[in-house]
Amino acid sequence: MKDCFTPACDLTAENAEDTRAARIYAALAHEVRLRILRHLMLQDACCCKEIVSTVDLAQSTVSQHLKVLVQAGLVDYRPERQSSRYSVNVQALATIRTHLNGLADCCANQRNKASRDHVE
């Protein structure tokens, strides 16, 4: 995952950054995955079993949610002998914040430009 990305202000253009951002937002668009992320933010790293006890779901269900979060780059996975460890990818969360801020700024700029053009 790149250090940061900013959405292009050409709102009609397709770009790879928006595709990647959409994949990340899709991973966040489930309340269980948000709960898992919140739990992981409070830990250095933890195993799936610890997360299962927190969200009160079957291990297979939690594993599937973790897989989505790992594939989106939001969670790091570190295999270990006894139990694999999961942790939040803090850089990925910072990237999301940067993208959302850039998107909001872009939309505000477009709206301001449209207002100025309408007045003239």
Task: Outline the structure in words.
- It is built from five helices and two strands, in the order H-H-H-H-E-E-H.
- With 120 residues, it is mainly alpha-helical.
- The chain has one domain: Orthogonal Bundle (Arc Repressor Mutant, subunit A).
- The protein has a two-stranded antiparallel sheet.
- A hairpin with a 6-residue loop joins strand 1 and strand 2 (85-88).
- Helix 3 (48-55) packs across helix 4 (59-71).
- The radius of gyration is 18 Å and the shape is elongated.
- The N and C termini lie far apart (43 Å).
- The mean pLDDT is 84.
CATH topology title: Arc Repressor Mutant, subunit A
- CATH class division: Mainly Alpha
Q: Roughly how many Å is the radius of gyration?
A: 18 Å
Total discrete domains = 1
Q: What's the number of extended β-strand segments?
A: 2
Give helix % range: 55-70%
Major pleated sheet: 2 strands, antiparallel
Distance between the termini: 43 Å
Outline = elongated
Architecture per CATH nomenclature, i.e. the level-2 architecture: Orthogonal Bundle
Strand content: 5-15%
Mean pLDDT, nearest integer? 84
Q: CATH superfamily, called what?
A: Winged helix-like DNA-binding domain superfamily/Winged helix DNA-binding domain
Number of helices: 5
Question: Which strand order spans the largest sheet, edge to edge or round the barrel?
Answer: 1-2
SSE order in H/E notation? HHHHEEH
Unreliable segments of 5+ consecutive residues: none
Structural class from helices and strands?
Answer: mainly alpha
